[in-house]
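User: Hey, quick favor. My workstation is busy. Could you predict this chain's structure for me?
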Amino acid sequence: GMADGAIAGAVFAAPNPLSIQTTAEALGQAEGIVYIYGNYSGDVLNFDFAAEELENEGKNVVQIRVHDDIFSAPVDRIEARRGTAGDIFVFKCVSGAADRGLSLEEVLRVGEKVNARVRSIGVALGAASSIDTGEPMFDLPIGSIEIGMGLHGEIGVSRADFEPAETLVPKMIELLMQDYFATRTPLERM
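Assistant: No problem, here it is.
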């Protein structure tokens, strides 16, 4: 029920193409390879390069770029969004479909369907610390929250005054639901 392989890059960096390719090759023969990763430019570049190399060797490679962060791009540019916490749902559903013996085409269809439906929103009370300096990556005044903060601790898209969870969480849920239903057809909303 989980991925057969994982490739880690350096902290806050995409894995290099050779590591991606080597990991895929180490998994042995299969109908194909499904790369699943967050939609960040370094990841896209490196996974694309590794996929191209494997395809040149005759391997079948498909990719799912997770794009769940509602604050990183508007609904009409959903595929430009970055991937954050939603990737775990895509990993689990794709892995479950593969474990059931579904075809690569069907595994990909399941993964794309989940990716199109998963949403996330990030809120933070403080900045992440830089691995180089140990200092916060941005200044956030006391009494403020950062909204739409990225997976790597990068600055969010807006700030607001601190609110307790009892009032903040319902607002977050409302934003997630509005975003989700803005992308559904009338039949899917039923």
